[in-house]
Specification:
The structure is a homodimer. Chain A is of the alpha+beta class and about 300 residues long. Chain A has ten helices and ten strands.
């Protein structure tokens, strides 16, 4: 187990600790091995944290599945190793957003025999009842963090996140976005590793701050139903479009760990968009890509 | 509107009437038009029939989506017309199976300008607490019906159904099967049309008989939870594998009509297979392809 692998396991433990501290719900860790690799799946099925999953996986194979690289076609079917951490959180209270984070490192042997390393990852926020200043802060803090490394990263990765988490068949974004990156490597490998681990740490800070702020907010049964209906969209995205999910299933990964991202409970309601008055506000103001940084500036002007 | 189109609309009405008669739940009809075509979606969100959808659609386009034909690659991207009826029923009581039926007629213009017609369709049954004699009857009656046309059809279409409704990532069948056919045309077009409409009528007879028999069966909250968990598998199949769903979304069909197949409520539970004692019986005795006709014969020996 190398340093990156150890660090992501440490981060996995921090996730479970935060869920315990803020929601008082216990997580369970489940170690597994398969023909492709090994991993540890942490999960919580609690009262206030209705469902959360934290996966660390280490896999290797003789043929990189095509879904693993969008940009490097020549590497498809080459031998590979991958280490990843992913986290997905579905709180019970609809006033707390659902959130997702993933970081991963790939190492692939070129046909010339030379190894190539790259990183991928990102995070995104899916509020049901968004609070504008929280959404702005989510983006502002992310930009501040990335600007320390390279001022071009935020706008590029923010756009990639908006493009990626867009449900084509619904013509709506999954949520208010965040960042998404792939095939990433700066000239300095150590600095790249630090940035990528920093993305996970930043997510932990930002997301659990929102959880602390919102966890006591009151909600009605209609608001709960609205969340259950919107969670259906989350399922649709993950099973119809998500490359991470399809990569996992294509590479014959451990199904229970891959599909831990699916919400604990859902409702599919015919033409829900016409039935919930909350939907129009969400769609008009939040489910379309926006320049949140500019909104912060204008808030002070 | 030609004769086949009229007949499938009549069948759609019969579905709604049966739901009203047996479950006392009302269906609503929703007519729609889009750039590709038109249709009528019937749906029921009732007390005993928790959710049902009955779609009739008529679409035409300049380029047949690849998902529409598995066997006729040369027809992909040719101009086409399609009329279809699909029905999906999710009763509240877990002792009543979920069921699905679909019939469709395609008409495609070959590049030579000559039209080609074919039919597809089928039905399958997804019980949560199967009753053996009902499953045997489901298959025996289907074989009897098809044998009137051609004695080779049942065994071929039954196998295709088993192959089609198999969840690769779970290594389990969706249910106890039925029949599945595609690219089907007998020498006599009228007889083919009669057979295909007969498939839908047979489904109505067989399925609503099971509903009548089982609708008063008692169930526990654990049995209800088992159904909610198994419904997650239904979602996984429809969004990850189902060609009909993918065809609909690829051809920019009406999303709400296509995804009406998704269950009203679901639960994803981590490692549910280890938590529900009911699962083992279901998996061992029902979620693997079986020769149900032979089981009937042996029951009498």
């Amino acid at each position: 187990m190398d340093c990156f692998h150890k660090k992501v396991m440490g981060l996995q433990t921090i996730f479970a600790n935060q869920v315990k501290t803020i929601f008082n719900d216990q997580s369970v860790f489940d170690e597994w091995e398969s023909s492709l690799g090994s991993g540890r799946t942490g999960y919580c099925e609690g009262t206030l944290m209705e469902k959360a999953g934290f996966n660390v996986s280490f896999i290797q194979g003789n043929a990189l599945p095509p879904a693993a690289t969008a940009f490097r076609d020549e590497l498809a079917c080459q031998p590979y190793k991958a280490v990843g951490l992913s986290a997905i959180l579905h709180p019970y209270n609809p006033k707390i957003p659902t959130a997702h984070m993933n970081i991963r490192r790939f190492e692939v042997l070129r046909s010339s025999g030379e190894p190539i390393i790259w990183f991928g990852g990102g995070f995104d926020l899916t509020p049901y009842f968004p609070i504008k200043k929280q959404v702005i802060n989510w983006h502002v803090k992310t930009k501040e963090f990335l600007d320390k490394y390279d001022k071009r990263l935020y706008s590029c990765w923010k756009k990639d996140c908006d493009d990626y988490f867009y449900l084509k068949h619904r013509q709506e974004s999954r949520g208010v976005g965040g960042i998404f990156f792939d095939d990433f490597l700066m000239t300095d490998l150590n600095q790249t590793t630090e940035l990528v681990l920093g993305v996970a740490e930043l997510f932990i800070d930002l997301y659990f701050d929102i959880c602390s702020s919102n966890k006591s907010l009151f909600f009605t049964s209609t608001e709960k139903d609205f969340q259950l209906w919107r969670r259906g969209r989350y399922v649709e995205f993950n099973l119809l479009q998500d490359r991470g999910t399809l990569f996992g299933l294509q590479s014959r990964g451990r199904t229970e760990s891959i599909l831990i991202s699916l919400p604990p409970t859902t409702k599919w309601i015919y033409k829900g968009e016409e039935r919930f008055e909350h939907f129009n506000r969400l769609l008009q103001h939040y489910l379309k890509p926006k320049d949140w940084i500019k909104m912060q500036e204008s808030a002070f002007n």
